[in-house]
Structure formats: C-alpha cells, structure tokens
Amino acid sequence: MSSITTPITLLSAVVATGASNAVQVDAGLPAFLQVSGITIATVALQGSLDGTNWSTQGTALTANGIVTIANAPTYLRANVTAWTSGSVTAKIVY
User: Fold this and answer.
1) What is the CA radius of gyration of the chain?
2) Distance between CA atoms of 24 and 32, rounded to whole angstroms?
3) Sign of CA pseudo-dihedral 75, 61, 35, 14
4) Maximal CA-CA distance, the chain
5) What's the pLDDT tens digit per position in 54-73?
6) DSSP 61-90
7) Vertex 12, ends 10 and 18: CA angle to 5°?
C-alpha cells in the first residue's frame, strides 16, 4: 500500500443510511474523510482491522466537515448512520 493524494469517493450523493465499500489503507498512517451535502444526517468514519468488525474513528459528523485520524487501522469506510435530508458525498485521503 502507498498513501494517496487524490481523494477517493466513498459515497456519492447518497440519500439513505448505509456504509460505503471499505478501502484498505496503510495502517498507522493518517487518514482524512471529507463529507459534504449534509442537511440532516450523521456520517461516521469507521475503521476495522479485519474488514468485518467496525468502530467509529473520531467524531461522527452532523454537518459538512473533515474527520482526521492520526493512526488509521487497516480498513476504512464512511457510514451514513442517520439520514433525514441532504445528498451526502464522502471522500477519503490517506
């Protein structure tokens, strides 16, 4: 694995709850998730060591913003855990 500088789109104009596909990243390196399009929704950056068991990394977003983690686990995904309105897009750089 090597770090990327071009964002990868995990969610594109999503209008429902649910998780993106996972991306495998360089464990132990920083990762950044940028979320836009939130009107009334919650989006969490989730991490996993095995790609099966997930936990929220940092703070879930209820407004447009960026989640930064210093030491990423092996897998990351974006998860819309609550949605009422908005068209959610999430991009990741690691």
Assistant:
1) 12
2) 14
3) positive
4) 36
5) 999 999 999 999 999 999 99
6) ESSSEEEEESS--SEEEEEEEEEEEEEEEE
7) 70
